[in-house]
Design brief:
GO terms for molecular function: malonyl-CoA methyltransferase activity. It catalyses: malonyl-[ACP] + S-adenosyl-L-methionine = malonyl-[ACP] methyl ester + S-adenosyl-L-homocysteine. The chain has a domain of 175 residues: 3-Layer(aba) Sandwich (Rossmann fold), CATH 3.40.50. The protein is 36% helix and 24% strand. Helix 7 packs across helix 10. The protein is of the alpha/beta class and 261 residues long. Strands 3-2-1-4-5-7-6 form a seven-stranded mixed beta sheet, with helices on both faces. The longest helix has 15 residues. The site of S-adenosylmethionine has 26 residues, from helix 1, helix 3 and helix 4.
């Protein structure tokens, strides 16, 4: 597992959001549904929902496939999912970098808006390749560079801290998924602009999604509050005539196949 990644922090961040998540997951719903047309029609498949969260899409996968496993690093997300989803689903608390599956044992891995949290994406991809059967599929969505540019540039006018995680570029993804072992056979890009009544509403939704996970910031307390005020003023540059604050999410969706040895 890559050393610079604080997985327990990510798990706690998502865990604290598990109850509010299903209400605030507007983006997740959209991107997860967008992946559905790529799902294979055969139903005798072993399927993993990687970073299953509250299990909204795991449930849909369970209505189509023979054996479905929801895997997440957050205990609380899994607890919520266990109590609210189809009883046939197997839930596993595990880290995507170390999948608890035998080599070549999985037909399909579905992953909606999880891999943007994995800085060491080539390590994750190698693990996905290890567990997929030859010809197996990885169907995923993620966020790419340019996401939340309004928020990033508003913060950039205030300080040099990192307030939003770094997202990979489309070229990064293409290089990682197009190799001797795998091919990205379909992909699409879409900008989703969500509307917020104010910047606090945006911050609340990011928190509700557990998406506020960034490296340690310098400023805390009053100095932090002051900077927040300044950032909110900067964000007004993006205010729409209707008085709505926009936030752009660049969603990349892909269908990767593991090539035969
Ligand atoms: C934005 S949520 C998406 C949840 C779900 N796929 C959906 O569409 O509603 C990302 C999920 O990935 C999980 N996650 C993040 N890093 C992980 C890792 N290394 N291994 C397993 N799960 C991880 C989080 O706990 C969280 O539940």
């Amino acid at each position: 597992m890559p050393e610079n990644i604080n997985l327990s922090k990510i798990a706690r961040s998502f865990g604290s959001a598990s109850e509010s998540y299903d209400i605030s997951a507007r983006l997740q719903r959209y991107s997860g549904k967008n992946l559905m047309p790529w799902l294979p029609n055969r139903n005798d498949l072993t399927v993993v929902d990687l970073g299953s969260g509250t299990g909204f899409f795991t449930d849909i996968l369970a209505s189509r496939y023979h054996q479905v496993i929801g895997l997440d690093i957050s205990t609380k997300m899994l607890e919520f999912a266990k109590h609210n989803r189809n009883e046939s689903i197997v839930w596993l608390e595990a880290d995507a970098y170390q999948l608890p599956f035998a080599n070549g044992s999985i037909d399909l891995i579905y992953s909606n808006l999880m891999i943007q949290w994995c800085e060491a994406l080539p390590v994750l991809k190698a693990e996905i390749i290890r567990v997929l059967k030859p010809g197996g599929l990885f169907i995923f969505s993620t966020l790419v560079d340019g996401t939340l540019f309004e928020l990033k540039s508003s913060w950039a006018q205030v300080d040099d801290d990192k307030h939003v995680i770094d997202f990979k570029t489309e070229q990064d993804l293409s290089a990682i998924f197009n190799t001797d072992e795998s091919k990205l056979i379909e992909f699409s890009n879409k900008d989703i602009v969500l509307e917020y009544e104010n910047v606090l509403h945006l911050a609340k939704e990011l928190k509700g999604l557990g998406a506020n996970q960034v490296p340690k910031k310098q400023s805390k307390g009053l100095a932090g509050k002051d900077k927040w005020q300044k950032m909110m003023v900067s964000y007004q540059d993006f205010l729409e005539p209707s008085g709505i604050y926009p936030a752009t999410y660049k969603v990349f969706s892909g269908l990767m196949v593991k090539l035969n040895d």
